[in-house]
Amino acid sequence: MSSSPTRYGAMPKELPSDDPDDVLFNSLYGVRTIELNRPKKLNSLNGSMARKILPRLREWEKSQMANVIMITGAGPKAFCAGGDVAELAQQNKEGPEGQKKSTDYFGLEYQLDHLIATYSKPYIAVMDGITMGGGVGLSVHAPFRIATEKTVFAMPETTIGFFPDVGGSFFLSRLDGEIGTYLALTSERLQGVQAFYAGIATHYLDSSLLPQLTTRLSELVFRDYASLSERLDLINSTIAEFTSSLPSPDLGKGSSHGDLSGKLREAIDRTFKHDTVEDILSALGQEAQSGDEYISSWAKQTQKTIALRSPTSLRVTLRQLREGKNWNISETFIREHRMAAKFMAHPDFVEGVSARLINKPPTQPVWKPASLAEVSKEDVDEFFTIPPEFEPLALLEPQEGALDQHFKEYPHSVFALPSEADIEQLVRAYGHDGPKAVIQAVVSRWNNKVGVREKVQEVLARKTKPEDKGISWKPQMPSL
């Protein structure tokens, strides 16, 4: 797959039937804004919206007047609650022709996500409110992702007989430890600042400050020949002007286990490191016997949660995360397009969407196959094989200044909190001088970014041990 050349296709065009007002575009000096405008549908993304946003992004790439792109959602509840999957499920009931329409929608969505991931200009996603599924695709690959107190993040695809797409293979597999595996298999929600500490968002602001931030960004003056890196640095320092302090990442409303730190995080890494769903469930069973009531309760609840998910979705999702660690950004979307097509022809997607989102009141989905034991390796292989008759996704040809189309690590990760790998590197360099020296080194390297100190302290408490006068990184425990 990775050795075959990437295909490029034509820019999609609006259709006469597209809603003229589902996306609003505005300019404020050098800032260009995209507002998803379907508040009654929680700004869920559909083909009409994607067909508007794609050519506008390309137009702004070519414009010397457009300095910063910001995407937001209309209304008080959501940035974007996902793709309009109810419409897709109805199409799939039409048979192969309808399933082809649904697959084409995913192709359009993934072209947009890929353009955002490799975009040649600064792009800021304001994740103010519900940010799930398709909304994650519009935000998580961007250099700047702002969470607020209203952010509710989740990848709930396994609840509807699907898989965490929109580049989930890439971004979830690169989160610290097994956070990505946990979020993907359980659909756990992260609230507010929890999304920032987990690495989903790069910044956290109170939503009341967003209008002021937009105004401030519109006032920025860039040198004519400033590189993308220089422009991003200036934007990063500007957003930092509005981040003075952070709320405690305690358990959010509606989130039973959202604070992924301390002993819970250790349990997540222990249980979700395995490469089969059965082994993960077995490890959760062991944790359920824990003498720690909190961990025991979490493990039992998590077992029940996974048992409700589509067995096919669980198997495909776990494999996509393990393989996705090695995919580049273009390969990710091409492979996910094939996986999405396969799911459109699978009974679980229509069943899951109907049961959860269409039926009133919601019903319990009846998965086919109904158990993990009935989902064979050969069944799963089909999602990861591109047959000769299947036409791979054609991406949009990059403009001059676009990022490498085949990067394997996010080029702008420095704008988020340091990863555990970053912290480990500095522990090995400065750990002999003790934890204070490590914390100071990380805080200095991240330019005193708000939240860095707190994250480093939490990681050091979990991942290091005293040694002589300093600290050292704990060796990784082998899998059982």
UniProtKB/TrEMBL annotation:
<keyword id="KW-0378">Hydrolase</keyword>
<dbReference type="Pfam" id="PF16113">
    <property type="entry name" value="ECH_2"/>
</dbReference>
<protein>
    <recommendedName>
        <fullName>3-hydroxyisobutyryl-CoA hydrolase</fullName>
        <ecNumber>3.1.2.4</ecNumber>
    </recommendedName>
</protein>
<dbReference type="InterPro" id="IPR029045">
    <property type="entry name" value="ClpP/crotonase-like_dom_sf"/>
</dbReference>
<dbReference type="GO" id="GO:0005739">
    <property type="term" value="C:mitochondrion"/>
</dbReference>
<dbReference type="InterPro" id="IPR032259">
    <property type="entry name" value="HIBYL-CoA-H"/>
</dbReference>
<dbReference type="InterPro" id="IPR018376">
    <property type="entry name" value="Enoyl-CoA_hyd/isom_CS"/>
</dbReference>
<dbReference type="InterPro" id="IPR045004">
    <property type="entry name" value="ECH_dom"/>
</dbReference>
<feature type="region of interest" description="Disordered">
    <location>
        <begin position="461"/>
        <end position="480"/>
    </location>
</feature>
<dbReference type="GO" id="GO:0003860">
    <property type="term" value="F:3-hydroxyisobutyryl-CoA hydrolase activity"/>
</dbReference>
<feature type="compositionally biased region" description="Basic and acidic residues">
    <location>
        <begin position="461"/>
        <end position="471"/>
    </location>
</feature>
<dbReference type="GO" id="GO:0006574">
    <property type="term" value="P:L-valine catabolic process"/>
</dbReference>
<keyword id="KW-0496">Mitochondrion</keyword>
<feature type="domain" description="Enoyl-CoA hydratase/isomerase">
    <location>
        <begin position="31"/>
        <end position="384"/>
    </location>
</feature>
